[in-house]
Amino acid sequence: MSSLLTNLRRDRTITDWDPEDREAWDNGNADIAKRNLVWSVICEHVGFSIWSLFSVMALFMGPEYGISLDQKFVIAATATFVGSCLRIPYTQATARFGGRNWAIFSAIVLVIPTGLTLMLMMNPGDFGYGWFLAVAAITGFGGGNFASSMTNINAFYPQRLKGWALGLNAGGGNIGVPAVQLIGLLVIWLASDNPEIVCAFYLVLLAIAGVGAAMYMDNLDHQTSSAKAMIDCLRYRDTWIIGILYVGTFGSFIGFGFAFSQVLNISFTSSGAAKPALAAAQIAWIGPLLGSLARPYGGKLADKIGGGKVTMYTFVGMTAAAAILVAAGTMSDNNGKVIETGHLVGLIVGFILLFLLSGIANGSVYKIIPTIWEEKAQARTDLSAMAKVTWSRSMSGALIGLAGALGGLGGVGINLVLRASYKSNQSATVAFWIFMAFYVVAAVITWVFYVRRQTVLSTETTDIVVEPTGTEPAVAEKSSATTIDDAAATNDAEPHTVPTTAGNGTLA
Length: 508
Description:
Layout lengths: L1 H8 L3 E2 L7 H30 L1 H8 L8 H29 L1 H11 L1 H12 L6 H11 L1 H16 L5 H13 L1 H16 L4 H21 L2 E2 L6 H7 L3 H35 L4 H9 L1 H20 L1 H28 L6 H38 L6 H41 L3 H24 L31 H7 L18
Helix pairs in contact: 2-5, 2-8, 2-9, 2-10, 2-11, 3-10, 3-13, 4-5, 4-7, 4-8, 4-13, 4-18, 5-8, 5-11, 6-7, 6-11, 8-9, 8-18, 9-15, 9-17, 10-14, 12-18, 13-14, 13-17, 13-18, 13-19, 15-16, 15-17, 15-20, 16-17, 16-19, 17-18, 17-20, 18-19
């Protein structure tokens, strides 16, 4: 009890936080960072679960609800879209309000859509399609949690640990997707007519997350993020390249996270399963779980061999996984749209591989980012050493929101493409072809910019030449043998690697 009171009474703002100070890190700062990381993961985890709530509710929504298959895909896309767009303002929130304060707010605000979903599910047929769209949109607030959480934890950890820490933070949050699906499975199995139990369970978890954030998290006085930084970010080619890559990685994860259960439900229904919803629920959670667990290891692997290489290899693997889906879908189409056991196995294996690989790539893409902004900051002769740190931190935080938003919109695209494919062809095969083609393009882009011709250290970049404005130096396109992946492999050993003094606020 005394410990709880102590936590409640302590000062919530930490001043002059320097994660690159190894002596301070070894003498208490590591424990502070870890404490904030743990509760950041919990809050983000619950946020992802609420964001994905309708991927589970869709399994409970029988004919009595009056919601068609077509409308279920739109409901999922709506939640994904709103959550993606909110990542941009959520990126600014930690700098403006504090990481702890915003974590508390994020938990409280999610009580609203969770309570409303409970009301909708308890009254089948009493609320129309518009109500479900509106509530799904509000669940999107849970998707915004990712950006604020990542921005916050990014500021707590040193450059040498960012790949692992941010991968762990993101992966722990991502596990919210399979977690809510697993809870849904248990409810379908034990109390199939009571989906509101899922909502009630998460109302309790939201209370725990909010109280835990209030007691154990901290605000940092040096958090920096601005709308101007986001606008400035758009001027750099790397911003758009990273955005495309994140569409393929996180977009795949969250898009399939929403759609996988529906695709399985349709497939099991076509195969003649007695309880297709239960069969779908038994499998749907496996893919998101593996993808979530793989994310921190993707970051850790990228720390060792380079984010560009890991990302390219995973996109090649995702192409192969999508090819399995294409083969399974084509065989089903040639069988009169009837899905047999072999087709089901192909669909399940293909999707699970996509989840696993997208999780690895989610971690590795973020490893590419810090060197980009560190290099650009060091090339700015108009800034002091501290100003370079601030600028790098601000730009990195901005890219968290932008890349997160673009990645989430990829999930919207997946649901809409699947909807169109089922509507026009009564199967998902056309959608699978589109996914495979995109992964091929993403692999080529990664190879061109971050493997064959990686963003370099020193003064060279892959950016379009821009004119100096007083705050931005002109940068030009050049080439060099010293690369991002070289830096990742050698870390602080080489003279041109990312300086540890500028690592406080960069993204990994």
